[in-house]
Specification:
The protein is of the alpha/beta class. Helix content is 41%, strand content 26%. The radius of gyration is 23 Å and the shape is globular. The relative contact order is 0.12. It holds the Pfam family CM_2.
């Protein structure tokens, strides 16, 4: 069979038929697991990141090739996304509209079979999850170029939602238009952050083309459909969803440009062994207060991956700190550190322990 192309294709067809048969066998087990979950806890989240991570890690570890290990994660993300849809609808609210980088982060986390609900503000994302109209919410928290998203931090002050997970999404900007012909472009539109992240490229390659700000990169893509002389700075997903052509790909000035997103839920995820804990706290106004706050983390051997401060809005010169540390709140060292810190704070709130992005 080594030299017969038709025989190789027949063999691939046979294997594909077997893969499909096994996917259906797998799906029957998934449906039964979903039934048992609902019997045990009717309100339980069907999505279990610990189990998903264990499946992928096991498959990657035993993979001998030639199928690339980096291809296993996206393939099984879609298999598990489709499987979850058999157990029940997975509704995910996100800061819309469609084809934004938040939408892309959602799909990276939950796959294409989830039911996505675009809303107009970060506050609405929190509200959809708090009211039970969505199982999860996805909001941006920080960007490597533009910094922290303060509105997201502020929402945690009064919300009882927990952080269920995080997603790191590469922000790669493309210049798109209806025709794909650069000579036809008379105007470029995009979100202010996208324009700022592509400023040097625009000044070098299209210095005489006016650039205008719009509400989102997706709205910029919509404008291309309305006017062939308009180009948009937007994502590859926007090109696919709106049927646009890429004039130039990856025009961002910083190629190491990522946005971190948080997944919100009313429930906490299971412990995975590779977790992160987020805390919100307010410290007493005294000399050395911040040093006293940080010392227990070091004394208990915890790595702090982020600290951000915001005005409390309740008292002048009083600040709230948002802290990320490695580890899970159920670990003794994390629990003891939090206990030590609590006595030194005006208030302390655990925002969640959740799987660190991998």
């Amino acid at each position: 069979m080594s030299g017969d192309l038709s025989e190789h294709r027949k063999e691939i067809d046979r294997i594909d038929d077997e893969i499909l048969r096994l996917l259906n066998v797998r799906s029957k087990s998934v449906i039964e697991i979903g039934r048992l979950k609902k019997q045990q806890d009717a309100d339980a989240n069907l999505h279990t990141p610990a189990r998903e991570a264990a499946i992928i890690e096991r498959l990657v570890a035993q993979n001998t090739g030639p199928f690339p290990s980096e291809g296993i994660r996206p393939v099984y993300r879609e298999i598990m996304s489709a499987s979850l849809s058999l157990e029940g609808p997975q509704k995910v609210a996100y800061l819309g509209p469609r084809a934004t980088f938040t939408h892309m982060a959602c799909m990276q986390k939950f796959g294409s079979s989830a039911q996505y609900i675009p809303v107009h503000s970060i506050k609405e994302v929190f509200s959809e999850v708090e009211r039970g109209r969505a199982n999860f919410g996805v909001v941006p928290i920080e960007n490597t170029t533009e910094g922290v998203v303060n509105h997201t931090l502020d929402m945690f002050i009064d919300s009882n939602l927990l952080i269920y997970g995080e997603v790191l999404q590469e922000v790669s900007h493309h210049l798109l238009s209806k025709s794909g012909v650069p000579e036809e472009i008379k105007k470029i539109s995009s979100h202010p952050h996208a324009i700022a992240q592509c400023r040097n490229w625009l000044e070098t390659h299209m210095p005489h083309v006016p650039v205008s700000e719009v509400a989102s990169t997706a709205r910029a893509a919509e404008l291309c459909l309305e006017d062939a002389s308009v180009a948009a700075i937007a994502s590859q997903l926007a090109a696919e969803l709106y049927g646009l052509k890429v004039i130039k790909s990856r025009i961002e000035d910083n190629l190491n440009n990522f946005t971190r997103f948080l997944v919100l839920s009313q429930k906490a995820p299971e412990r995975t062994g590779k977790d992160k804990t987020s805390l919100m706290l307010s410290i007493k106004d005294k000399v050395g207060a911040l040093y006293d706050l940080l010392r227990p983390f070091a004394s208990h051997g915890l790595s702090m991956t982020k600290i951000e401060s915001r005005p409390s809005r309740r008292k002048a010169w009083e600040y709230i700190f948002f802290v990320d540390i490695e580890g899970h709140i159920e670990e003794d060292r994390v629990k003891k550190a939090v206990e030590d810190i609590t006595g030194r704070c005006l208030f302390m709130k655990v925002l969640g322990s959740y799987p660190a992005h991998s």
